[in-house]
Design a protein that fits this description.
489 residues, alpha+beta, eleven-stranded mixed beta sheet, 14 helices, 36% helix, globular
């Protein structure tokens, strides 16, 4: 049973609110190992729904799942200079095993490029073996100093896609296609709008040619990097001798991509949709879409209402068989707990729809449906309850995306050319600021140092301002591109 003490509100302390929601909605808990977390069934159920949807999307685009070792020889990581420089501070190293010192230390994988491309080099001989499209569902370890449940932990779950192609253009098309797939998932399933674009060199993945990202705005107006897709060029192929015989007979190095999203998405979901009552889960990702709460005052009423609610749940379960994956229903028939306490608990956990049924409802052949996202309450006939509930869930999914998009648009500032105004925006509430950038890393670094804001992406065309900025936000020199600036997690 959830703690009945009121949550800290988002306006009081967004960070404290987030931690309380994650713990009290029983999404995750702190582990005895500092910096790690235990994902509880409520949280893991969301991850399972995410996995299922993404896995289907990957397979529809020709990717197959495989699994690679948790341990990576230290020498593998060191072969790609930029890669080892980027990850060395975050690595966990195994020096002993079986009571003996190892001849070569093993890295607990922070990411799997090195070991996967070593294997690709064994499997690829000819252009006929390409493209090689592999995905892995796994855990990784990155030794973070400052951790936060779901958003940044020493160990986390993710998927990492790795592909090999015959040409640069094919690899580029793959990296961009996956970026679009991630956006479709985040907006279609998570109801979380994102902007997409290119990362600057300072934010690029270590060892990549180019990095593309999906950036989402949280309710505190900070950005969350929700997913990345990298065109790795031929860097790793050259290091691991990943070559193939081309159609003309020449020996060529393959072109690689890698891409991933993680359990960080659960944190993004909480911070995008949660309110002062708890989590609000978009229906498509909710392990339970409808919770049925029977209401009665006497044993006689209890018998009648429970018989009816059991029948209704069974009918909704039959509906689910006709429409697989929809109307995941739970009957809360616990005794000794008042309906109000149940409402509080299920609101905290974010179940999209609550169905209330009492003796008066049965007399009217109806049930009361209550939306978690808006609190709207309305009666529906028991004769059409399956259709009505399904339609309502579809509407909730769309409305949650629309509300999040409206908030993002309202807090996206364009046309800022005055640096003092920019600094004030970042000092106050923040948001996404679209402004010119000269392309100089020194300007980018100065702004980060002075405001803690970073370039989230150089936005794709559809997200750019109608009028391209002409001058750099920081130095006033001619702008080479538009950049989206924000403070970020």
């Amino acid at each position: 049973m959830a703690d009945d003490k009121k949550l800290t509100t988002r306006t009081e302390d967004f960070s404290a609110w987030y931690n309380e929601v994650v713990l009290r909605a029983e999404l995750a808990d702190y582990s005895p190992v500092r910096g790690c977390m235990v994902i509880r069934p409520n949280g893991y159920g969301i991850w399972e729904r995410m996995q299922r949807a993404l896995d289907d999307m990957f397979k529809e685009t020709g990717h197959r799942n495989a699994y690679f070792p948790l341990f990576i020889p230290e020498s593998f990581l060191r072969r790609e200079a930029e890669h080892v420089e980027g990850f060395a501070p975050e690595t966990a190293v195994v020096t002993h095993g079986g009571g003996k010192k190892l001849e070569e230390p093993l890295i607990v994988r922070p990411t799997s490029e090195t070991i996967i491309y070593a294997m690709f080099a064994k499997w690829v001989q000819s252009y006929r073996d390409l493209p090689l499209l592999i995905n892995q569902w796994a855990n990784v370890v990155r030794w973070e100093m400052r951790t936060r449940l779901f958003l940044r932990t020493l160990e986390f779950l993710w998927q990492e896609g790795h592909t090999a192609h015959a040409t640069h253009d094919e690899a580029e098309e793959e990296a961009r296609m996956i970026l679009g797939l991630y956006r479709d998932f985040m907006e279609g399933w998570m109801a979380m709008p994102v902007i997409t674009g290119l990362k600057t060199d300072s934010e690029r993945f270590a060892g990549a040619l180019r990095t593309y990202a999906c950036e989402a705005m949280m309710q505190d107006k900070k950005a969350l990097q929700a997913g990345t897709s990298h065109n790795l060029g031929q860097n790793f192929a050259k290091v691991f001798d990943l070559k193939f015989q081309s159609e003309s007979g020449s020996q060529e190095f393959a072109w690689n991509t890698s891409w991933g999203v993680s359990t960080r998405l659960i944190g993004g979901l909480v911070m995008t949709h949660g309110d002062d009552k708890g989590v609000r889960i978009p229906p498509l990702l909710a392990p339970t879409e409808i919770v049925v709460v029977p209401i009665y005052r006497s044993d006689e009423e209890r018998g009648r209402v429970l018989e009816a609610t059991t029948r209704i749940v069974s009918m909704l379960t039959d509906w689910e068989r006709r429409d697989p994956g929809r109307l995941r229903v739970h009957l809360d028939a616990r005794q000794g707990i008042k309906p109000g306490a149940k409402y509080y608990e299920w609101e905290l956990r974010g179940v999209p729809v609550r169905m209330e049924i009492g003796p008066k409802d049965l007399e009217k052949n109806q049930a009361m449906l209550v939306r978690r996202d808006t609190g709207e309450k309305r009666p529906v006939s028991l004769d059409t309850i399956g259709e009505d509930a399904s339609d309502l869930l579809t509407r909730i999914q769309a409305d949650m995306l629309a509300a999040a998009r409206e908030r993002q648009d309202a807090n996206s500032i364009r046309g800022v050319v005055d640096y003092d105004r920019f600094k004030q925006i970042m000092e106050d509430d923040g948001g996404f600021v679209y402004a010119g950038w000269c392309g100089d890393a020194a300007c980018e670094a100065s702004i980060k140092e002075e405001t803690k804001a970073t370039i989230r992406v150089l936005p794709d065309e559809e997200f750019r301002s109608a009028e391209a900025p002409t001058h750099c936000l920081r130095c006033g020199r001619p702008a080479t591109s538009e950049a989206t600036w924000a403070k970020a997690y």
